[in-house]
Amino acid sequence: MKTLFILSMIVPLGLLATFRLAGILEEPPEVERITVEPVTLNLTRPSETVERINKSVQNEWAQEGASIIASIKVLSYLEGATSAPFWGHDGLVFKTYVNVSFSQGRVTTVKISFRPLDGNAVLLVSEERWSLRLDNATLTALHYWGTNETDAYIKANVLNSPCNVSNQIFWVFLDENESHELQINVEATFFGETSSKIITIPIKLKMTPSEGE
Questions:
Q1: Which tens digit of pLDDT belongs to each residue from 60-117?
Q2: For residue 140, is it within any domain?
Q3: What whole-number distance in Å separates Cα of residue 197 and Cα of residue 165?
Q4: Which of 69, 97, 114, 177 has the fewest CB atoms within 10 Å, i.e. is most exposed?
Q5: Residue 71: inside a domain, yes or no?
């Protein structure tokens, strides 16, 4: 029985190799990794709570009938907020948006990852259903806590075009008035007619200390 099982595995593999050598079956396309030129949004840390901050930044990739747009909209800055997830610390509240569309090929997955680049800040992704929006997408994983050693992230499968994924994010500062940086990467998998790509779209947020302090 073992011999028959081994033969049943070897014969199909042998035929597969023969077909590829004969040109009957094409080799699967190699995955190309593309990183878009990063963009940065510079912010100055307020000295008090600011409920409305109208600042945003956007980065995108478009090729082969597909488009992936990543954007960040800063909502507010809280000074010594006592509610969760700040618990007496200062912090920034912003929303992240990913918009995917394709008329040729297909985008299959999207991952949005967040990593503070210093040890005096943490990042939290909202787990509330009211803030996480998925249009033509299904959530596959969410890691809500990020530090300078561990990413927070949102992962989703793309079901159709157009697709939108957005959520509310909390960047919490553990100091009084220091500089901070946050790396945000949107990673998408794209299958075209003749190629496969993993596209990374980077956005960086920089927070400088309050002026005059």
A1: 999 879 999 999 999 999 999 999 999 999 999 999 999 999 999 999 999 999 999 9
A2: yes
A3: 20
A4: 177
A5: yes
In contact, 122 and 182? CB cutoff 8 Å: no
The enclosing domain of 104 has a CATH number of 2.60.40
CA separation, residue 98 to residues 40, 143, 192 (Å): 17, 17, 20
CA distance 81 to 26: 59
3-state percent breakdown (helix, strand, coil) of the chain, nearest 5: 10, 55, 35
> What are 27's two structure tokens?
């080799």
Residue 21 lies in a domain: no
**Segment (H or E) for 2:** helix 2-21
Place of tokens 């077909």: 19
Q: Which domain holds residue 153?
A: 29-208
Kindly give the pairing relationship between strand 145-146 and strand 39-44.
unpaired
pTM value is 0.85
pLDDT tens string 19-41: 444 444 454 468 899 999 999 99
Q: Are 37 and 58 in contact (CB under 8 A)?
A: no
Label the pairing between strands 145-146 and 133-135. unpaired
- Spell out the residues 6+ positions from residue 16 whose beta carbon is closer than 8 angstroms to its own: 25
Mean pLDDT for the chain overall: 88
**φ/ψ bin of 108: left (φ > 0), alpha (ψ from -120 to 50), beta (otherwise):** alpha
Q: How many domains does the chain divide into?
A: 1
Retrieve residue 146's tokens.
């990020």
